[in-house]
Design brief:
globular, disordered C terminus, 60% helix, mainly alpha, AhpD-like
Amino acid sequence: MSRPAFTAHTPDTAPAAARPVIAGVARHLGHLPAAVGLMAESPELLKGFLAANALFEATALDPVEREVVVLTVATRNCCHLCVAMHTATLTRHGAAPELIRALRAGEPLPEPRLAALRRFTVAVLDHRGAVPDAELDAFLAAGWRPRHALDVVLGVGTYTISTFANRLTDAPLDEPLIPYAWTPGAAGSVLPAA
């Protein structure tokens, strides 16, 4: 059996419940990302992801810290689209190129507190939330609080939705993301020239 074709919907072709949502995304971003059009096939999935993402953005993690969580999930789940999109986001936030390269390549992070955040995110993924005491203690010893641990869980859940949906639908890179393309295990640390 072959993989079904998923439709990259527009505000005109999407199921009725998704139309105002994707129209709003298109207005906000100035274009409709292909991944959003693909998620629109299930209005509930799209709304759920966007709502969870809005909540994750409101957590106690700052923008760069959130992106560390997202890129950790995205590289672990081999979502080329999320890695490219969130590389672009980190670049817009002015993150150090060394941090971005290390996140994309799975190499040690240059900043110890962010390294602890990534290690904890990996522990949440690896242990499906049942993080061993020693790993939680190391996270807290790096200056994080219990609130941050739960914020990481929200980020893992949010970006599990996104990475799995993007992989299932084989979501393509939108043209603005092509300079940030990423391939698992091959030149993952290559970044566009500044």
